[in-house]
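Exercise 7. Given the encoded structure of a 150-residue chain, write a plausible sequence.
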């Protein structure tokens, strides 16, 4: 596996990965439709934000993206194809995002995570500092807010 900077032409593949990874958790199709814009990665987004792909010899298997604002780096995306989960891809992408954030002067990394990803981020050294209400179709739901000092 190799990690490299994403290119504009990768946008469609990254969107497919984000949707497949989110769908992996069994969310209803109505929720998936509501999240379509949030899961869509455009070539403009890739040009504006540090975006990195994890690829094998034959395909992109995951990606991450950061939004940098001074000393704060926000992990905006970290998605891995379901077939590549639990194989170190997520860890490699997270560590790459951390290293890039440090390199550009960030002192901490923040994450608004999917509830299913909390354990992963905590294994990576992040801690929960709050939550954001994110109800879906009248069902109460909260997203964990995490941070990690860099």
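Solution.
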């Amino acid at each position: 596996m190799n990690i490299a900077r994403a290119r504009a032409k990768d946008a469609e593949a990254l969107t497919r990965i984000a949707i497949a990874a989110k769908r992996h958790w069994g969310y209803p199709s109505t929720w998936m439709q509501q999240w379509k814009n949030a899961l869509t990665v455009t070539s403009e987004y890739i040009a504006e934000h540090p975006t990195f792909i994890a690829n094998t010899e034959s395909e992109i298997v995951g990606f991450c993206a950061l939004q940098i604002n001074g000393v704060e780096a926000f992990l905006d995306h970290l998605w891995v194809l379901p077939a590549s989960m639990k194989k170190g891809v997520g860890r490699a992408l997270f560590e790459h995002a951390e290293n890039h954030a440090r390199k550009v002067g960030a002192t901490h990394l923040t994450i608004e995570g999917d509830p299913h990803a909390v354990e992963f981020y905590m294994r990576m050294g992040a801690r929960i500092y709050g939550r954001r209400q994110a109800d879906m179709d009248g069902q109460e739901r909260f997203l964990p807010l995490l941070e990690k000092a860099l």
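Remark. The beta strands are 2-5, 51-55, 60-69, 72-80, 108-112, 127-133, 142-149. Students should compare their own answers with the one above.
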